[in-house]
Amino acid sequence: MASEQATPGELAIPRRSRFRFSTVGKHPVGYIFVVPYVAFFISMIAYPLGFAIYLSFHQWSIVQSDKPYVGLDNFDRLIHDSLFWQSLRNTLKFLIVNVPVTVVVALILAVALNRGITGRAFFRTAYFLPYVTAGVVIALIWKWMFSTDDGFINNALSNIGLPRIGWLTDPFWSMITIALMVAWKQMGFYVILYLGGLQGIPQSLYEAAAVDGANAFQRFITITIPQLRPITLLVVILSTIVGFQLFTEPYIMTGGGPLNSSLSVVLYIYQKAFQSLEFGYAAAIGMVLAAIIMITAFIQRRFLGESAA
Amino acid sequence: MTDHRDSGSDVDGTLQHLRLNRRDVIRGGVGLGLGTFLIARGAAGAADNVTFWYATNPNETDYAKAVVAAWNKSNKPQVNAQPVPAGNSTEEVVLAAIAARTTPCALANVAPAAVPQFGNGLVDLSKVKDAESFMVARSGKSVIDQYRSTDGDLYQLPWKVNPVMVFFNKAMWSKAGLDAEKPPVTYTEALDAMGKLKAAGITPIEPTIDQTWYNRWFDWYPLYLAAGNKLLLDDKQSKAIFNDAAGKASMTFWRDVYAKGYAPKASWQQNPYDAGKVAMYIAGPWAIPDMEKGGVLKDTGVMPVWVPDDSPVAKGGTMPNTFADTKNIGIFSTCDDKDGTWKFLEFYVSPENDKKFFEMTQQIPLRQGIDQAMGQAFFTKNPLLEPFAKQAAHTLDVDPTAKSIDIFTAISQAYQECAIYSKSSVDDALAKAEKTVNGLVGS
Q1: Which domain does A144 fall in, by range?
Q2: Which residues of B sit within 8 Å Cβ distance of A?
Q3: Please, where are the H alpha helices in chain A?
Q4: Integer Cα distance of A109 and B101 in angstroms
Q5: Is A7 a domain residue?
Q6: Which residues of B touch A254 (CB under 8 A)?
Q7: Which one of B4, B92, B267 would you mutate to disrupt binding with A, by most A Cβ within 10 Å of its Cβ?
Q8: Measured between beta carbons, which residues in chain A are less than 8 angstroms from residue B2?
Q9: Which of A109, A116, B260, B419 gets the most CB atoms within 10 Å of its CB?
């Protein structure tokens, strides 16, 4: 039949099959392989995100049936909430300490591990181990280590005649202590990223620089750091995002104190949702935090990315 | 030109293998049906069981396991008992469980402060057949009435009381030249004793400074109750009443304790009193087993919380009020077998099991005449429990408001600001907390 003849460049497919193919494609079984991810995306990302947006415009509690629409009230309240701004300042303080320490120490460790040092495999594993250990376990151990009275660190300081420091009980130190501890925990992952970058730098660049008389430090400054700039951009963006999501460590180690000095934005979201049962307000803070993370990542990419290009 | 059908022949061949014949379809259908049947049967079987959460305290764990095992021997529904899942507090764990609809049938660690927050997550026990009469017969009407919600109904089975008192180490007391038989009553006497302890090289007291809301139940709040004999809100639950003489006196006392260096600014992992490092510790009788393990129980005495110098209590003859730290039992509305769960709870707090509970956990069941039921021999064997049993009649709990956690969070902020870190005056800190609390309760 004429209608079933293929035109040039087109498959000779019967009309009924052509309809089916145009709807589900030539290999519908492919959908089976896509379904798990689509289901995951819908249930774990799209639905929670949509629901959070919905919540942020409502006064919503899990134990009350009345959940009225409140428009932008939650966002208006957020602007005037001094505790939200304090949690944001605390998180920025965390980032100011955590991100530079992470970048510098991870780079130094990666360069060291990239050399033929004895026990290289052991050190690579040792640095990576905290990253794959449960955050709660690490936070509990470090909470004991940082304890003012009977902690390992203060005992060590005391033994050499130095004063004990309120690592987690002094409002000045609490967030700095947490930032350093998290940098230690995450370090292994960023070292691996840097190691991958180091192994991609052509050896010929170092050889040429050596021929030109550059010493090891000059080679590090003029070759290693510029060549690793894309990796550094990645480390900065990832550690910033992780920092904005800080929760487990202050939750376990300080409860956000003392004097709210270690209250992170995400811990504040948790407190508003699960202590005050103000899920709508908590969702509004979450929306604002998501926007801040996106803008920060965009700025970082814009500035560091340009210099990396 | 390449023929698309030819180029795709390998894929088509693979797909050919995926085509199912009739036998495969029948086999698959039977398998699916059988699987569905087994899952449904499992679910039906699960409905015969109820889940029960208890506190993680080791002694309570032993008690819960023993009583649940005794119940399961010859009763239905069968009870699956497990400790409350790990979390910062039971309240937060339960709220997360309510959100995820994974609450147990019953929970034996419900703080009265949390009941209004749980809202319709808890079953109205006044509507469970014979439950209210059972509770009144066990604890007495006056006790039961304290735990009624604003609608007059009971959403919790009043279970046990842990009056907060001050433990002290008599050996350290003697070393500092203090008379262990005449412990301090007033703030001035307490500060004087602390001064002598410090002078003797002993850390007088070390409450945790952690800002989490419930920590104030073991420093400022019992002293506030002893000073003012009232809760934090007025009777209508609509206005803060703690920014008064009682609130200021108790807050000033703690400010003096920290300012004079009698208490370190510490957040400890291991209780320093149990380790024999400090002279005093504010807690309920639940702390006694750990003191025994730490080896300090033999030197331990107990005294009521201190009162302002002008308190009538200072003239003697009566005990001051303190925080009750009551823990109750609730049934969650997600439970499929509420009546069966209630029958289990009747067994859990039966006269015999209440006695067993007191013996095993050293916590006081809210049962009328429990002192007589235990007998003098029990208190002779456990001398520290006698003052707690007497103190149980002089206790106050918390306001029945859904904002209780937020209120204590505001109090905790004020306490940290003015008492621990001296960042503001007592007047300013309490005024700020009062404003916050009034905002929370709507006045």
Answers
A1: 77-308
A2: 4-5, 8, 11, 15, 18, 88, 91-92, 95-96, 98-99, 117-121, 206, 209-213, 264-270, 272, 277, 402-403, 405-406, 409, 413, 416-417, 420-421, 423
A3: 15-24, 30-41, 47-55, 73-79, 82-114, 120-132, 135-145, 152-159, 174-198, 203-211, 216-219, 225-227, 229-244, 248-253, 265-274, 279-308
A4: 46
A5: yes
A6: 210-211, 267
A7: B267
A8: none
A9: B419
Task: Mark yes or no for CB contact B88/A149 under 8 Å.
Answer: no
Q: How many domains does chain A have?
A: 2
Residue B57: inside a domain: yes
Q: Which of A202-206, A262-266, A272-276 has the highest mean pLDDT?
A: A262-266
Residue type, B199: A
d(CA A180, nearest CA chain B) in Å: 19
Provide mean pLDDT across the span A100-118. Answer: 89
What tens digit of pLDDT does each residue of B24-44 get? 545 555 555 555 544 444 444
Domain count, chain B: 2
A63–B118 C-beta distance less than 8 A: yes
ipTM of the complex: 0.77
Distance CA A78, CA A217 (A): 49
Q: Under an 8 A CB cutoff, do B272 and A64 touch? A: no
* pLDDT tens digit sequence for A129-161: 899 889 899 999 999 999 887 789 999 999 999
- Higher-pLDDT residue of B269 and B404 is B404
pLDDT of residue B33: 55
Residue B99: closest CA among chain A residues belongs to which residue? A62
B207-246: burial string, b at 16+ Cβ within 10 Å, e else: bbbbbbbbbbbbbbbbbbbbbbebbbbeeebeebbbbeeb
CATH code of residue B435: 3.40.190.10
Please name the residues in contact with B369: beta carbons below 8 A apart, sequence gap of 6 or more: none
- Same domain, yes or no, for B278 and B252? yes
User: In this structure, is residue B346 part of a structural domain?
Assistant: yes
CB contact under 8 A, B121 and A63: yes
Contact at CB, B264 and A148, closer than 8 angstroms: yes
Q: Cβ atoms within 10 A of the Cβ of B113, count?
A: 23
Amino acid at B294: G
Cite the beta strand spans of B321-391 per DSSP E.
322-323, 327-331, 364-365
Q: Give A85 to chain B, closest Cα distance, Å.
A: 16
The pLDDT score that the predictor gives to residue A120 is: 77
Nearest-CA neighbor of A181 among A209, A203, A151, A207?
A: A151
